[in-house]
Amino acid sequence: RSNVYKPPVDFPDSGLTAGEVVELVLSALRNNDVPSPDYGIEILFGYSSPESQIVEQMETEGLKPSQYRTFLSMSADNMALFEHATAVIDKADFSPDSLKGYFTARLMEEGGSSKNDVSVNFILSTAGANEGDCW
Length: 135
Prior knowledge:
Number of strands: 3
Number of helices: 5
Order of helices and strands: HHHHHEEE
Radius of gyration: 15 Å
Shape: globular
């Protein structure tokens, strides 16, 4: 298995499970500038639901990926999104109707101690189980 990051070209991808979306977005953010500046944030934007604050700010204020990176970079904890070596999903729960997924991922530094781990929460939603519906 190759460890070379290959960014997705088509996203969102309806073939991915909710957990795979979390892993893909975290990997994209870790490799944010591959193949171009802030491409990882573009992937995050691509998987953001129409009800999310990100999409709302894109539509009302013209939020750009570079602006969101600057915003995230203001917090040391948020920098773990870009600088983590490994991400592990610690918890995954689904709503009774299976239309929402609640994930907690732990971001770990290279060779670092667990005291430096950062937890990140994701809430994913889907319109349904039809082909073409994405998380």
